[in-house]
Amino acid sequence: MPLFEVLSRLRVPSLLASVLWCVAPCLHAAPQTVASVDSPGKILRVSLQLDDGRPSYRVQRLGEAVIGESRLGFQLRDGALDRDLAVLDQHSRSVDETWEQPWGERRYVRNHYNELRVDLGERGGRQRRFAVVFRVYDDGLGFRYSFPQQPGMQEAVIDEELTEFDIVPDATAWWIPAGAPIHYEYLYRRTPLREVPLAHTPFTLRSQDGLHLAIHEAALVDYAGMWLRRGEGQRLHAQLSPSADGWKVRRALPFDTPWRTLQISDTAGGLVDSNLILNLNEPNALGDVSWVHPAKYIGVWWSMHLNQETWARGPTHAATTANTRRYIDFAAAHGFGGVLVEGWNPGWDGNWVGNGDHFDFTRATADFDIDALSAYAAKKGVHLIGHHETGCAVEHYEDQLDAALDLYARLGVDTFKTGYVCDDGQVDRRNPAGGPLLREWHDGQFMARHHLKVVQEAARRHLSVNAHEPIKDTGLRRTYPNWLSREGARGMEYNAWGEPPNPPEHEVNLVFTRMLAGPMDYTPGILSLTGRGGRAIPSTLARQLALYVTLYSPIQMAADLPEHYLQHRDAFRFIEDVAVDWDDSRVLDGEIGDYVTIVRKDRHSRDWFLGSITDEHGRVLPIALGFLEPGVRYRAEIYRDGDAADYQHNPFDFVREQRVVTSRDQLQVKLAPGGGQAIRFVPLDPAPASAGTAASR
Amino acid sequence: MPLFEVLSRLRVPSLLASVLWCVAPCLHAAPQTVASVDSPGKILRVSLQLDDGRPSYRVQRLGEAVIGESRLGFQLRDGALDRDLAVLDQHSRSVDETWEQPWGERRYVRNHYNELRVDLGERGGRQRRFAVVFRVYDDGLGFRYSFPQQPGMQEAVIDEELTEFDIVPDATAWWIPAGAPIHYEYLYRRTPLREVPLAHTPFTLRSQDGLHLAIHEAALVDYAGMWLRRGEGQRLHAQLSPSADGWKVRRALPFDTPWRTLQISDTAGGLVDSNLILNLNEPNALGDVSWVHPAKYIGVWWSMHLNQETWARGPTHAATTANTRRYIDFAAAHGFGGVLVEGWNPGWDGNWVGNGDHFDFTRATADFDIDALSAYAAKKGVHLIGHHETGCAVEHYEDQLDAALDLYARLGVDTFKTGYVCDDGQVDRRNPAGGPLLREWHDGQFMARHHLKVVQEAARRHLSVNAHEPIKDTGLRRTYPNWLSREGARGMEYNAWGEPPNPPEHEVNLVFTRMLAGPMDYTPGILSLTGRGGRAIPSTLARQLALYVTLYSPIQMAADLPEHYLQHRDAFRFIEDVAVDWDDSRVLDGEIGDYVTIVRKDRHSRDWFLGSITDEHGRVLPIALGFLEPGVRYRAEIYRDGDAADYQHNPFDFVREQRVVTSRDQLQVKLAPGGGQAIRFVPLDPAPASAGTAASR
């Protein structure tokens, strides 16, 4: 018989009944909100709760639950740190500052958040302590754990982080598998969130009601990358990338974890325009970085992916003095700042994949006169771009790192590309106990340390880094602006190999997934639209140009062969003209996996550039030009799909045309199936005097 | 054994094999394209086919199928007219013209299409003839059947129209049921297209790949309205609204059917911004229509829906001289052009629903001094707005129509509202053979004729019409600009009745469904947010204001009681200021049923107005103000949801604030759950000289 019925029959007076009524359920108290913090515009609210000493958090947006009660804490080697906790202290603060990027999608970044720090401590036992710090923005939030110095704990050996994200609204997810062999290089899956097993971040969601979410992390320093494992329903659990040591992370106290981030927007474009990840990173640690050079570059590269030339020495060796000289000439003639050369050093001759012990980073092969080429490049105003493929022999590379970087510095190389091609997604690590090599994931603590070491050593020599098969981007370019770009997704080379090539929706998906992390060296611009053995690349000609605007990187490759550019001079002109460093960037419109239109303003001129790409379906997108400077006429140099263009049947149908437009005009941007459009807007009038709207920001 | 295998075994030479291979399938020839036409920008292609004499059509967009092979033709009383047809003649032409609306969402409308007319005739039998005429625009198409004068056919008795729409991409539909009792007044259903039984138009679809479609009709004159019945899969069949006569339509030749229309857009807003329906109607047939007055109005109306007053005579009769005088005073004081009075005439005292034989449209009730009130209104610069509720006694109304309209003309009434409230969705029609009354649907040929008769008779007297419980809008306001507005969807009165009220998504749905047809007299502005018996209306305060911009009508009611407006003077100010006639209108962003933001420029000033509404979820929408005149500062008068607003728990949390902005600014428009935002932009600077971009249109 239920308690209430018992009480009724006993005719207990009603007030007394209510008191008694609470006895049974109230023995276990409900989770208690111990602190909460709103975003500056009161759009988001984050609450920290304790449920009998167990911490959790919730996120509401405009009064609606987005993240339901989700655990916080750790499984440490010396016992779980997620229970019997009490609040020791709490602090709030508000920050509203604007900082300047040395390079980037936009020059000025506003950092406007409310912060809540809650210090928690175990009530009994070893009385271990840590804090949870929330920074809440109008368009997202980050939180991290902070381990202060404390008597009972010198270091943390983390077996698992217990952070959860219980997504409340029913959602569709775009994701790539974690714990899989090809280090991020997958086509994005689109599935119900309820069907995701284990995924990497950025992890992008759209709810049935049109709310867009992305989970990622910021400032991944000396820690393991966070994967997301789905539990019950739509509950996601942090799962740290493993280590060969057994634990996931080992750190001496004090230390902070990376920020766990959640971007939230009503529009898909809002995710892309968000500065959350950069804002949560530490400011520039390098001081004057005028030696970091955003640039376009070409390279001795695509011919190897076509199987026309080889990385290995011999009659087809690509990295020869004569060949590279030809590329330098082409770069100088067409305004490219760099020439990448792969295969320039010994070690490529055998099977080097996952087997990089033979790479020598301090000597060139005999047919590559690196000193003469560097001098020749310098004379022509071009930099050689270095290349260090490790074949996953990471410590073998570290052994040579100082000498290798000294060589580049001496030669005038300003940027180098690294590579970590393995056969199973894991790199080699020497076994300190002897015995067979250990294996480490691309995004575990071991590799987080390695990548940052390379970047820091490079910075000492004024070199910039472009890492391929990298650890994921978490915004460290803010702190280390010489970390220019990286790969970390399925790039253009899959279109050379064709197994299978990247379907048109892939590049649209990238904008709303991978690109949320930061710049990607996708290596666009294959105007020949042809891969290995004549394979067709699923793209129109105009689309290849649009990629320079839609897929942001401060270094952009013109990846095709020089002779192919000369066959498509009309289209190539856009690649010559397009900027790589921006005053401002804005997503005008887009839907994940369907289409996207982005505009960016050149940092070094008054030009604007527009890029628009679609999936396998043609589109007609009305684009209002209100982003242009008011009262100024612009020459719109339009590079578009021809009327009969189609990525499968008629990819080369292409039109270059000009119109005069102003900020009041609206364009109908027509994209062929698998197509794209690129526009350069060149001002024809001087800049008008400002209308003076200081009051309006 | 398959034929091919037989041939292979016979070792027939391969060329011969291919020829033989065709024998079996080719005995029945494939449908043959007899003509096709592209849209001006080569975005759409429509093809007409004959398959052994049976006509069908297909629609492709940017090379992809949108409408698969779909039948054309008629089931006539004297035999099907859809087979054994041959092409007699065909004509193409291109039109690019711009016409001016006397009032509307925009002043100038471009009408740019390619037309294909194909004349078909029966090869045998009675050799009946008809033509199919396609007009193909970049954002949609219309087609209609044309029956020319011909020897063997004096009239057409149409039992059914056989037009089909076979939607190719998998789609979700937003729709209301046809053949149902409450004449269009339903909440919109959102279902897979494959689950729709029988629906009205406009019928809105979104494909899985983000293509937006709407099926409707234009220029429904002397014909039955088209319903859509789903057949197999995603194939929709036209099903004409029935007639008590048994047939659906009876017309003497020559005649044209209404246009069957298909709007196609990559964005939801593109459907709303399309001018297709208006363009397919005939130009203004009334000549000078300077006597048609877009205006805001108030009315003796909401108090009856609240059950505070009655239409019927007696102590609670609303339409009294004193009460109306109070409304006239309020209208004059606050700039309203009209005062609607319902219940002013005899006939309301009993049960008049579906039983309107007692209505007298030529006399006022004794307590309503119509002459004195008209004179009083005229003195105050206000018009009385007439009202004719028929209670579905349509011919009873027609009998009095001349006298009733003469009365209004004499009294200076410039607009009148009609009503057709029945108890089962059908109106009464006298039985020419005697006997019980016949019943006719609201959108059959009988009512199509009736409504146009009222509009034409009204035009003769310079009166404008606002029809409630009407036939659906098909753009006839272009031809008859005195057909100002109408109802034809679930309006505000459901929020008074609360059975159930309109949930927030309803008004968002309306924008992308009902409003595609034309203006709606939704009667917004219930600032009390309270219905009958204190029922809460599911809306925030700011949202009520936003409805004036998002739900277009050239006559907009301020539907609440005057005393309620005086209780909310801050919010009411927007209703006083908002325009009703526009130079231009534009959907800035929106998703069907989720949210929408629309901006419109006043036709009689340089002011712009913005309205944004959401469903039950809060939103934060980035709104670039590029639509404003460049180089001009504007005072943005912002009427927004307060930070804690919520349509369920805190609907009155509201802020009115001002900022100075220019076309370069971007606003973060924050909408509460069930909320909205309204902004008036008032220029602070004179209009700058034009930058002169004639070349850019």
Oligomer: homodimer
What is the structural class of chain A?
Answer: alpha+beta
By CATH reckoning, the class of the domain at 66-280 in chain A would read Mainly Beta
Share in β-strands of chain A: 35-45%
Q: Can you give the helix content of chain A as a percent range? A: 10-25%
Shape of chain A: globular
CATH topology (fold) name of the domain at 66-280 in chain A: Beta-galactosidase, Chain A, domain 5
Average pLDDT confidence of chain A is 94
* Largest Cβ-defined interface: A-B, 63 and 62 residues
The assigned CATH architecture of the domain at 66-280 in chain A is Distorted Sandwich
Distance between the termini of chain A: 64 Å
Signal peptide (chains A, B): 1-29
GO molecular function, one term (chains A, B): hydrolase activity
Domain Glycosyl-hydrolase 97 catalytic (chains A, B): 301-489
Domain Glycosyl-hydrolase 97 C-terminal oligomerisation (chains A, B): 581-681
